[in-house]
Write a structure and sequence with these properties.
With about 250 residues, this protein is of the alpha+beta class. About 35% of the residues lie in helices and about 20% in strands. The chain folds into 2 domains: about 90 residues, Phosphorylase Kinase, domain 1; about 140 residues, Aminoglycoside phosphotransferase (APH), C-terminal lobe (Aminoglycoside 3'-phosphotransferase, Chain: A, domain 2, Alpha-Beta Complex), CATH 3.90.1200. The relative contact order is 0.14.
């Protein structure tokens, strides 16, 4: 964290509304909630920012920092993500978004759902050149390979791999997918809606972020529910495997 703060003169702090950064910031408080990294609110005068100290287990957890950087840069013009002030493999400095995080209950609000759907449509419209879509079978196997046979039975492995293979073989147009679109990663204030924590993002299935937010409610018909069954199983598997590799 001290290394991050010592780099303050290299932060891109000249953005409107951020406040003028003329001295090394100090830690205000640790921001709790995420399980992967350490995150802090820092300030200097009227300047405030968020410093995320990255977990050293990025590879173990399936995180690609350079891909995250590329996606954040592509999404900066949308106004849906915090402005990036500094980025390297060890830490990320970004704009502090003041507001309230969504909850499962707030997702039942029709206005929130409409705003979220519009935001995801914008994200999915942004093209990501020179990048391959996520292969969900390979991704799940990277987690599975870290676990012993006592943690995941052969039957469960077979079920996970079968669902992932089915998703990979379906015809779908890859889009920028957050892959961790939980209510806590969505902040709302008077200026609108913001999506944070993009470290698991990649080109992926266009339905996955919607499924993570709304579950089966996302499907508008029985036919659509049936077509999304494998994707829902993969989503559940990725969540459980992510937790298991950290135990």
């Amino acid at each position: 964290m001290q290394s991050a703060l010592s780099s303050w003169q290299n932060w891109n702090s000249g953005e409107p509304g951020l406040g003028l950064l003329t001295a090394k910031p100090e830690i205000v408080t640790e921001l709790f909630g995420g399980r992967t990294n350490k995150t802090f609110l820092v300030s200097s005068g009227d300047f405030r920012a968020v410093v995320r100290v990255n977990s050293p287990d990025a590879v173990k957890l399936g995180i690609d920092r350079q891909r995250e950087k590329q996606i954040l840069e592509l999404l900066q013009p949308t106004g849906l993500v915090p402005r990036v002030l500094f980025f390297d493999n060890d830490f990320l400095v970004s704009e502090f978004i003041e507001g309230r995080s969504l909850t499962d209950k707030s997702l039942k609000n029709s206005h929130i759902m409409e705003s979220l759907s519009e935001a995801l449509a914008v994200v999915q419209s942004v093209k990501m050149p020179n990048s391959s879509p996520r292969n969900y079978l390979d991704y799940c196997r990277r987690y599975l390979n870290q676990l012993t046979g006592t943690k995941v039975s052969p039957l469960v492995v077979e079920q996970i791999e079968g669902a992932a293979k089915a998703v990979d073989q379906e015809a779908w147009e890859p889009v920028i997918c957050h892959h961790d679109m939980v209510p806590e990663n969505i902040i709302v204030n008077d200026s609108g809606l913001f999506i944070i924590d993009w470290e698991y993002a990649a080109l992926g299935h266009p339905g996955l972020d919607f499924l993570r937010l709304y579950g089966a409610d996302y499907a508008s018909s029985e036919r659509q529910k049936e077509s999304l069954q494998s994707l829902f199983k993969v989503k559940q598997a990725m969540d459980k495997l992510w937790l298991a590799v950290q135990l």
